[in-house]
Amino acid sequence: MRILRLCSVFVLILGMTVVAQSTILRLELDTSINPVSKDLVLRTIREAEAVHAHLIIIELNTPGGLDQSTRDIVTAQLESNVPIVVFVSPSGARAASAGTFITMAADVAAMAPGTNIGAAHPVSLLGGDTGEASSESTSMDKAANDSAAFARSIAEQRGRNVDWAEAAVLESSSLSASEALEAGVIDLIAEDLPDLLRALDGREARDTILSTLGATVRTIRPNWRERLLGLLADPNLVYVLFILGLYGLIFEFFHPGVGFGLAAGGVCLILALFGLQILPVNVTGIVLILFGVGLMILDAFTPTDGILTLGGVVSLLIGSLTLFNIPDRSVGLSLGTISVVVGLSAAFSVFILSKGLMIQRKAPATGLQTLVGAIGIVRQALQPDGIIFIRGEYWNAHSVEGTLQEGEQVQVQGFNKHTLIVGRVHE
Which of 50, 247, 376, 419 lies 20 to 30 angstroms, CA to CA, from 105? Predict the structure, then answer.
């Protein structure tokens, strides 16, 4: 009986080992490469190692991303105990910029027909070519050379085309799936996931013969926290939330007791600050944005004829351009978003200033100024001081034309404190 139990335990353990080794973890990476997507890839690798998975398949479609996040992913790929396949899919997908490094770092690199890889050249702050003469050309050249060396090292370690890896960075070279296969950049082309599994079966990776036919494919999905952070990893959304949060709090400050500005602005600002913790932020950009908004608000209460507004718009624009340390505009803060936000802020500030100027030029509606030019009747003879009746009220008056008798009509010409200066009405 004891021997039977031991045999049962042995069979159970053996069965669990077979199931574990026939498990494939699949991750769809259809986003920019940022700290959130990096954490998702690293979690997938850790989970695959924990369950002794047979293989990891990353289905990749990315326009690029952050340099540090890319390096962290590549490092995790090279150090992983589980073989990793990067599959650029579906048709129409791309492994641009950061995706090029991730694809080359895979144990097996595959692409679907109609996809492309490459264009890993760093982009300057305003999206120009680093070959152009500019103040930042030197630093961009250093970044390009550093990225080229990184690409060469990956290609050498994985036995891929080293020359093309360097050209992808320095010359923005890009290849289609068939061209990449011919150039030795990838290992195979597959139509879809089932076709990829058939092509991988029997292939060697890390001194292991892959057995993918009949394997259990389990998809790794982001949890609620990763989904939320994934949304807040978009610099455009974080930027808009940050500006809306500022304006919401400013509205609440000037209209206390309403509550809407505090609630809406507070939520937007908290979400924006949450996103700012994920993205590489330039503190100088935040200070310039706050200073610019402050100048535009201050201009509504000071007689500067729009000078502060102009300075505020310039400060807001510079701060927006330098807010994130993301040189690549394809995954960073877009110029279109900046233009809309700065333009609307400037238009709103100009609207407030114009309304203020119109009110200043409008004739007074209350006070002694409104009585100037009005017609009244003398109730007590002006010699030259007396009393007149005007607009249902009795006023002390002083005549500038000598004595005026009771019952005569007079016209207000001005005032001195609470005494009206009047004269005779001439036809």
Answer: 50
